[in-house]
Amino acid sequence: MAHFDLSDGEWAVMEPLLPKDSCGPKRKDDRKVLNGIFYILGTGAPWRDLPERYGPYTTVYSRCNRWGEREAWKGIFDALAEECEDSLIFIDAAIVKAHRTASGSKRGN
After folding, report:
1. Is residue 58 part of a domain?
2. Is 2 within the bounds of a domain?
3. Residues 13, 14, 19, 22: is their CA dihedral positive or negative?
4. What does the H/E/C string look like for 31-76?
5. Could you give the number of structural domains in the chain?
6. Does 64 fall in a domain?
7. Which domain holds residue 92?
8. Taking the model in full, what pTM does it have?
9. How far apart are CA 91 and CA 15, in angstroms?
10. How far apart are alpha carbons 7 and 3 in whole angstroms?
């Protein structure tokens, strides 16, 4: 199992939250696709650099976008947030931007 891959317990929670109503051919392994999405989000790598073990990057990219358009990610986030009693106190400082002068003035005041 790679660093970004879902454990069996995590997959058991996530699987029922994924959209099931799709037209066209039967979808490939959703778990592998989710692992690929998490790999890209965790590393910041371009989609084209997705390791082959996650399948074609075009499939992973398309599924990520389609699920976003159908608001599946919001549903997943909301369901997972309900499971964690401390979910409202987590803040990722990586997304908080500050102006370059936010650390103080040149004179140290």
Report:
1. yes
2. no
3. negative
4. HHHHHHHHHHHHHCCCHHHCCHHHCCHHHHHHHHHHHHHCCHHHHH
5. 1
6. yes
7. 8-103
8. 0.71
9. 25
10. 10
